[in-house]
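EI: anyone free to look at a 200-residue chain?
SC: sure, send it
EI:
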Amino acid sequence: MKLKLAAVAVAAGLALTACSGPIEAGSAAIVGDHRITTDTLEQNVSEYQKALEAAKVAPDQLQLPGTLTQAVLLQLANISQFSQLETQNGITVTDGEVAAFYAKNNGQAAVDQILLQRGVAPGQTREWLKVSIGSEKLAAKLGGGTGEQQIAAGQEKINELAGKIRVTFSPRYGKFDPAQGWLPNDRFGTPPAPNGAAAG
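SC: here you go
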Protein backbone atom coordinates (compact mmCIF):
# COMPACT_ATOMS: atom_id res chain seq x y z
CA MET A 1 0.00 0.00 0.00
CA LYS A 2 1.25 3.46 -0.84
CA LEU A 3 0.56 5.97 1.88
CA LYS A 4 -1.43 8.86 0.48
CA LEU A 5 0.53 11.65 2.09
CA ALA A 6 -0.23 15.09 0.81
CA ALA A 7 2.35 17.75 0.03
CA VAL A 8 5.66 16.11 0.78
CA ALA A 9 7.10 19.29 2.18
CA VAL A 10 8.13 17.50 5.34
CA ALA A 11 11.86 16.85 4.79
CA ALA A 12 12.29 19.11 1.77
CA GLY A 13 12.51 22.28 3.81
CA LEU A 14 14.77 20.72 6.41
CA ALA A 15 17.25 19.61 3.78
CA LEU A 16 17.61 23.21 2.68
CA THR A 17 18.31 24.64 6.11
CA ALA A 18 19.94 22.11 8.42
CA CYS A 19 23.60 21.90 9.30
CA SER A 20 25.87 20.51 12.00
CA GLY A 21 27.65 22.73 14.47
CA PRO A 22 28.44 23.45 18.13
CA ILE A 23 25.32 23.64 20.27
CA GLU A 24 24.45 23.57 23.96
CA ALA A 25 25.55 20.42 25.79
CA GLY A 26 22.65 18.01 26.29
CA SER A 27 21.05 19.06 23.00
CA ALA A 28 20.70 16.75 20.02
CA ALA A 29 19.46 19.59 17.82
CA ILE A 30 18.19 23.14 17.93
CA VAL A 31 15.23 23.82 15.64
CA GLY A 32 14.25 27.47 15.55
CA ASP A 33 13.31 28.25 19.14
CA HIS A 34 12.87 24.57 20.09
CA ARG A 35 15.54 22.38 21.68
CA ILE A 36 15.52 18.63 21.08
CA THR A 37 17.37 17.16 24.05
CA THR A 38 19.59 14.11 23.93
CA ASP A 39 17.22 12.50 26.48
CA THR A 40 14.26 13.02 24.14
CA LEU A 41 16.22 11.55 21.25
CA GLU A 42 17.36 8.54 23.27
CA GLN A 43 13.80 7.85 24.46
CA ASN A 44 12.53 7.95 20.87
CA VAL A 45 15.36 5.77 19.60
CA SER A 46 14.64 3.19 22.33
CA GLU A 47 10.92 3.26 21.52
CA TYR A 48 11.70 2.94 17.81
CA GLN A 49 14.01 -0.03 18.35
CA LYS A 50 11.36 -1.82 20.45
CA ALA A 51 8.75 -1.20 17.76
CA LEU A 52 11.06 -2.67 15.11
CA GLU A 53 11.64 -5.73 17.28
CA ALA A 54 7.90 -6.15 17.83
CA ALA A 55 7.34 -5.89 14.08
CA LYS A 56 10.23 -8.31 13.49
CA VAL A 57 11.97 -5.83 11.22
CA ALA A 58 15.76 -5.52 11.23
CA PRO A 59 17.14 -1.97 10.85
CA ASP A 60 19.28 -3.08 7.90
CA GLN A 61 16.09 -4.03 6.04
CA LEU A 62 15.06 -0.38 6.00
CA GLN A 63 16.29 2.37 3.71
CA LEU A 64 16.80 4.90 6.47
CA PRO A 65 18.55 8.25 5.92
CA GLY A 66 21.74 7.53 7.85
CA THR A 67 21.95 5.41 10.99
CA LEU A 68 18.90 4.49 13.03
CA THR A 69 19.64 7.29 15.51
CA GLN A 70 20.18 9.82 12.70
CA ALA A 71 16.90 8.81 11.05
CA VAL A 72 14.93 9.27 14.27
CA LEU A 73 16.64 12.61 14.96
CA LEU A 74 15.87 13.81 11.44
CA GLN A 75 12.17 13.01 11.88
CA LEU A 76 12.06 14.80 15.24
CA ALA A 77 13.64 17.85 13.63
CA ASN A 78 11.21 17.68 10.70
CA ILE A 79 8.24 17.59 13.04
CA SER A 80 9.53 20.52 15.08
CA GLN A 81 10.43 22.67 12.07
CA PHE A 82 7.14 22.22 10.26
CA SER A 83 5.09 22.51 13.44
CA GLN A 84 6.65 25.92 14.05
CA LEU A 85 6.23 26.93 10.41
CA GLU A 86 2.56 25.99 10.39
CA THR A 87 1.87 27.72 13.71
CA GLN A 88 3.48 30.90 12.40
CA ASN A 89 1.14 30.80 9.41
CA GLY A 90 -2.06 30.05 11.30
CA ILE A 91 -2.37 26.42 10.23
CA THR A 92 -3.97 23.94 12.64
CA VAL A 93 -4.78 20.25 12.28
CA THR A 94 -7.39 18.58 14.47
CA ASP A 95 -7.39 15.08 15.93
CA GLY A 96 -10.44 14.48 13.75
CA GLU A 97 -8.44 15.21 10.61
CA VAL A 98 -5.78 12.75 11.73
CA ALA A 99 -8.47 10.14 12.41
CA ALA A 100 -9.92 10.74 8.95
CA PHE A 101 -6.47 10.29 7.43
CA TYR A 102 -6.08 6.96 9.20
CA ALA A 103 -9.52 5.89 7.98
CA LYS A 104 -8.62 6.68 4.36
CA ASN A 105 -5.37 4.73 4.58
CA ASN A 106 -6.45 1.35 5.97
CA GLY A 107 -6.35 2.33 9.63
CA GLN A 108 -3.85 3.45 12.22
CA ALA A 109 -1.91 0.17 12.42
CA ALA A 110 -1.21 0.19 8.68
CA VAL A 111 -0.15 3.85 8.64
CA ASP A 112 2.02 3.50 11.74
CA GLN A 113 3.76 0.51 10.16
CA ILE A 114 4.65 2.55 7.06
CA LEU A 115 5.90 5.46 9.14
CA LEU A 116 7.99 3.04 11.21
CA GLN A 117 9.85 2.19 8.03
CA ARG A 118 10.63 5.89 7.58
CA GLY A 119 12.23 6.35 11.00
CA VAL A 120 9.19 7.70 12.88
CA ALA A 121 8.93 6.39 16.44
CA PRO A 122 5.39 5.22 17.38
CA GLY A 123 4.98 8.03 19.91
CA GLN A 124 5.57 10.60 17.17
CA THR A 125 3.29 9.27 14.44
CA ARG A 126 0.33 11.51 15.23
CA GLU A 127 2.54 14.61 15.36
CA TRP A 128 4.21 13.56 12.11
CA LEU A 129 0.82 13.19 10.44
CA LYS A 130 -0.33 16.54 11.80
CA VAL A 131 2.59 18.38 10.23
CA SER A 132 2.19 16.42 6.99
CA ILE A 133 -1.51 17.24 6.74
CA GLY A 134 -0.70 20.78 7.83
CA SER A 135 1.90 21.12 5.08
CA GLU A 136 -0.79 20.40 2.50
CA LYS A 137 -3.01 23.09 4.02
CA LEU A 138 -0.12 25.53 4.11
CA ALA A 139 0.85 24.81 0.49
CA ALA A 140 -2.74 25.49 -0.57
CA LYS A 141 -2.87 28.68 1.46
CA LEU A 142 0.44 30.02 0.12
CA GLY A 143 -0.21 28.86 -3.43
CA GLY A 144 -3.76 30.15 -3.57
CA GLY A 145 -5.58 26.89 -4.16
CA THR A 146 -5.48 23.10 -4.33
CA GLY A 147 -4.64 22.68 -8.02
CA GLU A 148 -1.38 20.94 -8.92
CA GLN A 149 0.37 24.16 -10.00
CA GLN A 150 -0.93 26.06 -6.99
CA ILE A 151 0.29 23.37 -4.59
CA ALA A 152 3.69 23.34 -6.31
CA ALA A 153 3.91 27.13 -5.98
CA GLY A 154 2.90 26.83 -2.33
CA GLN A 155 5.60 24.25 -1.70
CA GLU A 156 8.25 26.59 -3.10
CA LYS A 157 7.11 29.27 -0.67
CA ILE A 158 7.14 26.73 2.16
CA ASN A 159 10.77 25.95 1.43
CA GLU A 160 11.60 29.64 1.48
CA LEU A 161 9.88 30.12 4.83
CA ALA A 162 11.40 26.95 6.28
CA GLY A 163 14.83 28.43 5.59
CA LYS A 164 14.11 31.01 8.27
CA ILE A 165 13.74 28.30 10.91
CA ARG A 166 17.35 27.31 11.42
CA VAL A 167 18.14 23.69 12.25
CA THR A 168 21.46 22.77 13.84
CA PHE A 169 22.39 19.20 14.75
CA SER A 170 24.94 18.32 17.40
CA PRO A 171 28.07 17.01 15.67
CA ARG A 172 28.11 14.02 18.02
CA TYR A 173 25.40 12.50 15.81
CA GLY A 174 27.30 13.01 12.58
CA LYS A 175 27.68 15.65 9.91
CA PHE A 176 24.58 16.80 8.04
CA ASP A 177 25.01 18.35 4.62
CA PRO A 178 22.07 20.45 3.34
CA ALA A 179 22.37 18.98 -0.15
CA GLN A 180 23.19 15.36 0.67
CA GLY A 181 21.77 14.66 4.11
CA TRP A 182 23.81 12.67 6.62
CA LEU A 183 27.34 12.02 5.42
CA PRO A 184 29.14 8.72 6.09
CA ASN A 185 31.69 9.03 8.88
CA ASP A 186 34.65 8.50 6.56
CA ARG A 187 33.56 11.52 4.52
CA PHE A 188 34.49 13.92 7.32
CA GLY A 189 37.18 12.04 9.17
CA THR A 190 35.40 11.18 12.42
CA PRO A 191 35.26 7.53 13.43
CA PRO A 192 31.98 6.08 14.72
CA ALA A 193 31.55 7.08 18.35
CA PRO A 194 28.09 6.14 19.61
CA ASN A 195 29.13 6.75 23.21
CA GLY A 196 31.92 9.16 22.53
CA ALA A 197 32.20 12.67 21.26
CA ALA A 198 30.70 15.36 23.41
CA ALA A 199 27.89 17.45 22.04
CA GLY A 200 29.00 20.88 21.02
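EI: Residues 1-12, 187-200 have pLDDT under 50 and may be disordered.
SC: 👍
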